[in-house]
Design a protein that fits this description.
Layout (H helix, E strand, L loop, with lengths): L2 H20 L8 H29 L5 H4 L29 H11 L32 H14 L7 E4 L6 E7 L31 E7 L1 E10 H4 L2 H26 L16 E3 L11 H10 L9 E4 L4 H4 L3 E2 L2 E2 L1 E2 L10 E3 L2 E5 L12 E4 L4 E14 L8 E14 L17 E4 L7
Parallel strand pairs: 1-13, 5-15, 6-11
Antiparallel strand pairs: 2-3, 4-14, 6-12, 7-8, 9-10, 10-11, 12-15, 13-14
Helix pairs in contact: 1-2, 4-7, 5-7
């Protein structure tokens, strides 16, 4: 191994040890932790001995490169001091773009490097404390907002949800909501009841009932390995970072809004108790029928109808062209009317979404009012960098973390004032048997 490789492996072992020891601040170290520390200590001792051997041989058996160069001890600089800034030249206060900042993060992770004053060294929520040797720095605010905005732009569902940003010191939020599961008399607002003057001899007092929604931040994490060649071109790096991660974060957010388990991730619509599943028709195959569409529409909460959107698996779209009532089409394709970017079904937009279930499965067609889905997040997307993880491959690693949580505002479907069929802002069609 070359000396540079030994140094990198030594630092990597030290960082792994520090990460394990940091757990002791929250809990006692386990036997597995102690065994891992013992193993790491052996690694560290081995690399230190190798470095000592190299130093000894350089000093005795083999003339060191520094000695051959003719430099004296006074002239020699083991760790060169960074060039002093020209006081006449005003240092830039912000980065030109995200690629420029990522380059500064990478340079800061080099051993003995000068830390760019434009980088923030504050600890990021949800991340380990940042330091120069690890190369972890917060993305500058203007770029955080840009990356997050692009995440919402590429996310079809996330951009339609109700969003609440958390304050700096908050990691969760509790919201009081009305506990209403029926619109029957005495159940509206969870228990309110009113009377006409002559309706009863004696009036009964009533009061609303409340429940508490709690959302705690979960972590969506992304890693990006970047070659040294790509790092030489900040513009290309910015393109990769912005487009690649914005699209991937947007995709994963849409997927979890649909089918998240609620355990370590947001709770998705399809796993919520607020979801209404409309039964299939007798002997129905995977195909969609007019009856399916009409029945789904009838179960949409009346106050959400003006904001509801149909989300479909792209395989369903050709089937919509066949739906008619009499001689009137139910589906109006996009572009048939002025300023109509989406087709419409019963007057509401139809959006093809690849995260919808495959044809015939529950979730292949969804009617939803996403203003009734709540998202919380904290600040933006945090990033950290290290050159040690992929040192042998001439690659640096950038890590991105987005802290977010979400769930439907509704916890149950609602029984209407008249009738037995429950309504909700979230409707899907049940699984159908057979094939097309």
């Amino acid at each position: 191994m070359k000396r540079k490789e030994i140094v990198a492996r030594l630092k990597d072992a030290q960082l792994r040890g520090k990460n394990i020891l940091s757990k002791s601040e929250q809990r006692e170290l386990t036997d597995e932790d102690i065994a891992a520390l013992d193993k790491i200590k052996v690694e560290i001792d081995k690399y230190k001995k190798l470095l000592d051997c190299i130093k000894d041989f350089d000093a005795t058996d083999t003339p060191a490169e520094e000695e051959n160069s003719g430099d004296t001890a006074d002239d020699k600089e083991e760790d060169p001091e960074p060039p002093k800034a020209d006081p006449a030249k005003k240092e830039e206060k912000s980065f030109r773009n995200l690629g420029d900042q990522m380059m500064a993060v990478y340079r800061a992770s080099q051993p003995g490097a000068r830390i760019d004053s434009r980088l923030s060294t504050r600890s990021a929520s949800g991340l380990n404390a940042t330091n120069a040797s690890d190369g972890g720095f917060l993305v500058e605010t203007q770029f955080v907002k840009d990356l997050l905005k692009r995440t919402y732009d590429t996310g079809i569902l996330a951009s339609r949800c109700k969003k609440i940003p958390l304050t700096t010191n908050a990691n969760s939020i509790k919201i009081n909501a009305v506990d209403e599961i029926s619109r029957a008399n005495g159940s509206r607002w969870g228990g309110l009841q009113t009377y006409w003057e002559n309706e009863a001899d004696q009036f009964s007092a009533s009061k609303p009932k409340f429940r508490q929604m709690e959302l705690s931040l979960k972590k969506l994490t992304g890693l990006c390995y970047v070659t040294d060649e790509l790092l030489q071109d900040a513009a290309a790096l910015e393109k990769v970072i912005k487009d690649g991660f914005a699209e991937e974060f947007g995709f994963k957010m849409d997927d979890v809004i649909l089918r998240g388990s609620g355990a370590g991730q947001p709770l998705g619509i399809l796993n919520s108790d607020a979801l209404v599943k409309v039964d299939k028709e007798k002997n129905q195959t995977a195909k969609i029928t007019v009856e399916n569409i009409v029945k789904m529409w009838s179960r949409m909460w009346s106050r959400s109808r003006s904001n509801a959107v149909w989300f479909i698996n792209p395989e369903i779209e050709p089937l919509l062209y066949t739906l008619v009532v009499g001689d009137k089409p139910v589906y109006i394709p996009a572009g048939s009317m002025a300023n109509a970017p989406y087709g419409t079904l019963l007057g509401r937009p139809v959006v093809a979404l690849e995260q919808c279930s495959e044809l015939g499965e529950a979730g292949d067609i969804i009617l939803a009012d996403l203003s009734q889905y709540l998202l919380i997040d904290k600040g933006g997307i945090n990033t950290a960098s290290s050159i040690h993880v992929r040192f042998l491959y001439d690659e640096a690693v950038f890590r991105f973390i987005y802290r977010v949580d979400g769930q439907p505002v509704w916890n149950k479907a609602l029984k209407p004032y008249k009738g037995d069929a429950t309504v909700s802002p979230f409707i899907t069609l049940a699984k159908r048997g057979g094939t097309n």
